[in-house]
Amino acid sequence: MELSDANLQTLTEYLKKTLDPDPAIRRPAEKFLESVEGSQNYPLLLLTLLEKSQENVIKVCASVTFKNYIKRNWRIVEDEPNKICESDRIAIKANIVPLMLSSPEQIQKQLSDAISIIGREDFPQKWPDLLTEMVNRFQSGDFHVINGVLRTAHSLFKRYRHEFKSNELWTEIKLVLDAFALPLTNLFKATIELCSTHANDASALKVLFSSLILIAKLFYSLNFQDLPEFFEDNMETWMTNFHSLLTLDNKLLQTDDEEEAGLLELLKSQICDNAALYAQKYDEEFQPYLPRFVTAIWNLLVTTGQEVKYDLLVSNAIQFLASVCERPHYKHLFEDQNTLTSICEKVIVPNMEFRAADEEAFEDNSEEYIRRDLEGSDIDTRRRAACDLVRGLCKFFEGPVTGIFSGYVNSMLQEYAKNPSVNWKHKDAAIYLVTSLASKAQTQKHGITQANELVNLTEFFVNHIQPDLKSATVNEFPVLKADGIKYIMIFRNQVPKEQLLVSIPLLISHLQAESIVVHTYAAHALERLFTMRGTNNATLITAAEMAPFVEVLLTNLFKALTLPGSSENEYIMKAIMRSFSLLQESIIPYIPSVITQLTQKLLAVSKNPSKPHFNHYMFESICLSIRITCKANPEAVGSFEEALFLVFTEILQNDVQEFIPYVFQVMSLLLEMHKNEIPSSYMALFPHLLQPVLWERTGNIPPLVRLLQAYLERGASTIASAAADKIPGLLGVFQKLIASKANDHQGFYLLNSIIEHMPPESVDQYRKQIFILLFQRLQNSKTTKFIKSFLVFINLYCIRYGALALQEIFDSIQPKMFGMVLEKIIIPEIQKVSGQVEKKICAVGITKILTECPPMMDTEYTKLWIPLLQALIGLFELPEDDTIPDEEHFIDIEDTPGYQTAFSQLAFAGKKEHDPVGQMVNNPRIHLAQSLHKLSTACPGRVLSMLSTSLNAEALQYLQGYLQAASVSLL
Amino acid sequence: LRRQRVEVSVELRKAKKDEQILKRRNISIHVKEEKPSLGRDRAEEVIVQLSLEQILKAVNGEDTQLQLLATQATRKLLSRHKDPPINQIIELGIIPRMVEFLGRADNVPLQFEAAWALTNIASGTSEHTRAVVEGGAIPAFISLLSSPHLHISEQSVWALGNIAGDGPLYRDALISRDVIPPLLALVSPATPVGFLRNIAWTLSNLCRNKNPCPPLHAVQKILPVLIILLKHEDKDIVSDSCWAVSYLTDGSNDRIQIVVETGILGRLVELMDSPDLNVMTPALRAVGNVVTGTDQQTQEAIDAGLLAVLPRLLKHLKPVIQKEAAWTLSNVAAGPPQQIQQIITCGLLPPLVELLDKGDFKAQKEAVWVVANFTTGGTVDQVVELVRSGVLKPLLNLLLAKDSKTILIILDTISNLFLAAEKLGETEKLCLLVEELDGLEKIEDLQNHENDMVYRAALNIIEKYFSGEENTDLEPQTGQDGLYDFSVEKQDFNF
């Protein structure tokens, strides 16, 4: 393409078309541009247009197109065509800086980006004069130009903040420092001087402050990797100026906007970052300056207003103080009583005040308010920062700080008492102060776990918290009510139990409060109290103690779900679940009404599931209703099926993906409640459960496997007789699962159930295939998890079909296969098996191989007999692994891993552990002894001679113990 | 892996303040105090007035009295506190003449003044030192080592120290002119302490610098004397001797071996515990260098009691000491499991965790390496012990560090921890723990990190431990009935 007017014209046309909203016009134009972008001069044409076009839109469009073109093509990738010819590259580099600097801001930004992309590839080697070219512009005195240079420098250098230290990188930084550090420092000084000469010129100040922000950012990048010699030598200049900028104020720079941070705030925030960088990484060198920054930053805090636009600055600044005051060698900066008092008075207390913005959130955006206040997503709020500062100060000055604040708390409470309806905010601040002062460590699960001993929490509770909650009007001073409830919640482990019991009815009545925050907090507090543990790990608050409140509790909880704004309130639903779990059979009389309300809710939310936590607890509550009721009366399962199946069918038919895993879990629970043959309603569903589309969603896999297992347990013979044609599909599911490292254990669950429950003849023709599949996975991508499951499976198979059958099927797949599996897998890996039942299955299976498999005695496999026995004894003598507790009440929902968002296991749909060998073998050690005895009777002398020649002494000793315990001996 | 001292040859920082000084100017006036004579004082006052031209003339003239006065004036100029005019003196071209004066055994004061002046010129930049060497000063100074006058041989030792300190080139030039035997001959029980200090310092410069290291035969000659000096009661002598040993151990394993074989490790470890920072610093560096060597060499340092001293150093007030101690520990942790076991037994985990939590950033970075090496080479039990000591919380907190490399190493360490957890079947438990300590949140955040390797390491952990993956070759096809087809092709198996 020549640099001709005609080509410029053509390009203009096409650029214009790329802006057309109609894709029929836009797309072909984009295609065309792409097709010509490999031509020589194309980028130069774009540069010409963005400089000289008559139309502004074309200028902007050309600049964006140019930047994207550079982004796609500048990097030269090996083995791929170089799309920009060398002469164009040279021309671009020669012209782009002046062009960028003379362009209006909108275009300047695009070109600046383009420069940094080019710089990333070519700078410094292939673009040696870039730095000098930029630095020379510092002298221009034109801050439009200077800011362009600074912006470009910033985009070139900001990678120093994340790249690894390397010779190459540091060589580049050194080069940059040599060329750039001094001019930047001079520019910094000059700019500051200009700021004072132009102190009355608002528009000049704006430009100058934009420069200062960029300079401060460049400082951050250039100082990130290590402290450069130049900056260490010039620390005085930089830090002195940064320090005075922190203290600077100018009316002309103040903005009217209450929300958006202005230039002054942005600059000060960046300076705080710079100081924090030095304090974190170059503490030793920065130490002389740090005290000044501490003072300046707290003065800044004292003088900064309450507007939202200062929030980030204020919280950054407080966090800076909080991190410094914890360090032993800066302790002295804070220890003076006057200093402490003024920090408490002027920094902490004002930032704890309940502001208009908080009040607004409390009323109109309660979800956000709760998230910040309760769940700790308040990281950059002022209150949180102030709280962290209190904690930091308490590390060394707990006594004095507590003393100072006690005074404040008292005077604020007095103010409140004078005129509650006007001064309620004082009490709010007092409660917040006590809370932040008293809490030293906190977890979601336990509330405060470590408290300041100097604060009498119970006394404060009785004198100042309970009276508010006892007041008859639940809707009065909602903020104070919320504060009080939160106080109970977080100090539940510090306040004595009798006080908690007094609070329970108060909390129940606040479930009726109109304020969303108040009734949510009440529900949440109840839920937390119900999970507290007393002695013996029993719940602290017992069902008996709750007996008088059952009806009102359930009524108020379900009523709260009808209050405006709370129809899908997860805290309330969680409290419902927790109440069921605590109250157990005392809820049975209310079940008919409860299950109706829950089903209605389920139907309503299934139209558009939007609150995953709410939904989860709702299903948990349904499960609990079923379990508790059916435990007392197994026949009741039918009425639950009646109530639920209609909704379930709708959910399955409408493919409500979020709910399907839950439905399968509830169905499993229901099916397992049946004592007899599987009902036909379930069988009708069976083929649908094997549909691949269901298995493609990972969230469905665990509950579907669980459900199929329930089908196999209750209906294996029905499947074999009435749905034999579905067996390949069932095994196909197994194959699908076994192919996945994440899901293979699920595949084994299914396979184990098939082997255990299906009539042998119904799966006979597939058995060899099953093993081939497993061997293939073992060969190609074995994992510890896979091996563990594999070992359990083959031993289960051995128990079910006999050791000889196992040996025969292995060896029919490949000669000597059985020996190879014994030697390479079973013997070396058996110790990895964990879980009591799993170990028992393996023990019984191996015992069978040892004693009921003739080839082990009279073929070349005989040499593996002793090693296998040795491995078995090892398995016995390993320390027992964790057992799974039966008391499911204590499974805390938070204990289930939260990252598996796709699948949410319902704790209360939990499956009881199943022991397939439970009936057959009680003690596997004795079983081994007896089996060996039997074997030795069949071939006298052989067993004993093998043992005495090759079994190691320790194992032999154990074995003798088993024989003694079984009262048998070997012949 | 054991990490040598230097990773990057480019430095952004100022030359280290904690390093030993390379060249020194003699600005003291102790000679005057030794021989207070009125005439001398007066003479100096007069001579101070001499212009450079007058100096040039006098030095090149034949009047020995004037030569002495001019040389003295030169020395005086070069000894003044601020801005000695080294360049101007060199430009006068009088260095060869000064070197000539060194040979004037008949005129001891002139010899001495010339030696002093040349010492101070050699104390400047490389350029300055070169001017002295090219003036032929090396052989002259070496022969002056044997001067019967103590203050002249002492000044020569000093001058030679400055020349050796310039770098490997001049260092080896001195060695090949056999500077070592006469230098070592000066060490005797009768040598004054001040003189011994100069000797120790010059010896350290003869051991100093790499690319190349000093020749082996020289090292072997110097070492026995260093061992003696290390036992001296003067801490400056001990300090410089320690520095010398630290240079000798800063190299390949066979260099380390030579030092280890002298049996000096016990003394060095003892000196690591010295209350004097100038002794502790080089002793720590020397032993730190030793443990970059083989497992056996590291074991010798451990047997000498290294691990008993380290806990105190890890808690030292000086950040450089914390850092150096942590670096040393990181190289022990890079050893075999039995050495890692000794780290545990010697109670190093608590101070390590504390350092990781509260130490200076430079030291925290090294502490991260300790943990990384520990988890790479340690047994599962040892890793469990490490986690039990509370390492996880401060380690995860450092994912917020302003240093990409540190973040990457922590991510690698987390992967190591997961490997150990897998072996114990406790992956799930570790997942929960990481999540509880806000680690998961931070790792997830790092998936947005600008650094590609950090981003990929974070992604890898998330994918591996916080989600699943598939084996597509075993995936079933869908059959005609719309269900999965159960089928597989047999292959040959060999586990």
UniProtKB/TrEMBL annotation, chain A:
Molecular functions (GO terms): nuclear export signal receptor activity; small GTPase binding
Gene3D superfamilies named in the record: Leucine-rich Repeat Variant
Keywords annotated in UniProt: Cytoplasm, Nucleus, Protein transport, Transport
Compartments, as annotated in UniProt: Cytoplasm; Nucleus
Domain Importin N-terminal, chain residue ranges per copy: 29-102
Any one GO cellular component localisation term in the record: cytosol
Primary residence: cytoplasm
Coiled coil region boundaries: none
GO terms classed as biological process: protein export from nucleus; protein import into nucleus
SUPFAM superfamilies: ARM repeat (SSF48371)
Record bears the keyword Repressor: no
Transmembrane segments: none
InterPro entries, per the entry: ARM-like, ARM-type_fold, Importin-beta_N, XPO2_C, XPO2_central
Family from the record: Belongs to the XPO2/CSE1 family.
SMART domains xrefs: IBN_N
Record flagged with keyword Cytoplasm: yes
Protein name: Exportin-2
Automatic annotation (TrEMBL), chain B:
Any Gene Ontology CC annotation: nucleus
Molecular function, one GO term: nuclear import signal receptor activity
Signal peptide feature range: none
Entry keyword Zinc-finger: no
Superkingdom, taxonomy of origin: Eukaryota
ARM repeat boundaries on the chain: 93-136, 136-164
Gene Ontology biological process terms in this record: protein import into nucleus
Family stated for the protein in its record: Belongs to the importin alpha family.
Protein name: IMA5 protein
